[in-house]
């Protein structure tokens, strides 16, 4: 539930389930004008990784961001060249800035994503001028799932993937997918009647739209398919999300070729636009599917080393990543005593990775897949800090010496 829609004041970021170092204090500055805010940012903000949030004059969270150097990032909002851009508009609407340091840039990325999903600040998910809006591709809906896009995936979806940039392009892909897999796309208010569903009276049902009559829907609203038959279509649709089903692209290419041969140029043009949207989506899904196959390990992330030599370095963190998703985390051990305390959890991680069950969602944080995949694509050298839990004893000693 989005608490902010009811006008409640934002009191704090809340718990962080992926931070094993414990609760972090939330710092804040308040000012009545952007120049005053800028002065306080320069005085108070640290040069450390972390996340920040902007509150408007009603005390509502309107934006969340992250940076590996908080002070540098926040001062850029006040640059004259950003006055008419998104950064300048956010500052003009803000009266309070809150921040929370993190042990590393990777930890800040995880925290930022978590907070955007929890609070859905309007400048993160809606008011993004001159920029495509990120959305998630979702497969869900009771009792007959179908493809749809949403700015945040509902908790009860069968599967979801993303985020993807461009709501218009993604909606076109969604329409093409629902047509190919013959999934419904009607309102949740539409009553559904599966062929194997018992009814007190044998009533003639009327379709809620034309899609069944033109062969683009299985017709669960008129009892033209059993629940099992529809579930088989959903399973094939889920295989497309996993990157294992290229049928929709092949079918559209064949349709374009036939339309061109029959000189149906308008149809060919329309289907070509569908193909562009689906090819874009399929490339992204293949990229994420590759991340699921490759990224299963423990990722050791070093803590931030402050520029002030008198300040204590941040502790490192070990993240369990399974099928590309962040599952759990522990404080990186630095000595034999700490490693002995961590051994039961590391042994559990070894059993988790040995589990033959190939669950599509490997953790409680499936939305971290895209973050992990992009992070390691941009910084492949970080793979040198990954290892299997069975190597933890040797690796902790190597990493502790760094």
UniProtKB/TrEMBL annotation:
Entry coiled-coil feature ranges: none
GIY-YIG domain segment(s): 47-125
Chain intervals for the UniProt region annotation (Disordered): 11-33
CDD domains reported in the protein's UniProt record: GIY-YIG_UvrC_Cho
SMART domains: GIYc
This protein's GO CC annotations: excinuclease repair complex
PROSITE patterns, per the entry: GIY_YIG
GO biological process, one term: nucleotide-excision repair
PANTHER family per the UniProt record, alphabetical: UVRABC SYSTEM PROTEIN C (PTHR30562:SF1), UVRC/OXIDOREDUCTASE (PTHR30562)
Record's protein name: UvrABC system protein C
Native organism: Rosistilla carotiformis
Species lineage: Bacteria, Pseudomonadati, Planctomycetota, Planctomycetia, Pirellulales
